[in-house]
Amino acid sequence: MEFTGLEQILVAAMIGGVGTIAGYVIGMRGKMTLSDCQRCQGACSERMQVKLDAMESKYSELSTRQDRLDTGIDDKLDILFRMVRAIVMHLPIDAETKSEIINERAGR
């Protein structure tokens, strides 16, 4: 059986069309529907909110630690400054220099 050129083109177009439709149907098998997509977006936004809440709590915890650390460092520096002033009292330097060192405030 021999086909003319026009018949060959029509048969090829029909086979291509059937193949395209079959590929589309097979390819769409794993795709989400609109309701699936909306459900996933809701779950994703909930997970994101949980992560944001955890990050905010960690940040507030870190800032509290930093405040305590700053207070502890200030206390230690104040103690060191008082110790240096006590040592200055016993150094062999003139009274005016001693007075300047002793009356100086620690970073204030």
Overview of the structural elements:
The protein is mainly alpha-helical and 108 residues long. Helices cover 81% and strands 0% of the residues. It has three helices and no strands. The longest helix has 55 residues. It is rod-shaped and about 125 Å long. The model has no long low-confidence stretch (mean pLDDT 83).
Question: By helix and strand content, what is the structural category?
Answer: mainly alpha
Instruction: Summarize the helix and strand pattern as letters.
Output: HHH
With helices defined by DSSP (H or I, 4 residues minimum), what is the helix count? 3
Uncertain stretches:
none
Q: Please report the distance between the alpha carbons of the first and last residues.
A: 106 Å
User: Which range does the strand content fall in?
Assistant: under 5%
Q: How would you state the average pLDDT, rounded?
A: 83
Q: Approximately how much helix is present in the residues?
A: over 70%
Q: How big is the Rg?
A: 40 Å
Number of strands: 0
Name the overall outline. rod-shaped
Main beta-sheet strand count, sense and barrel state:
none
Protein topology:
Layout: H1 5-27, H2 34-88, H3 95-103
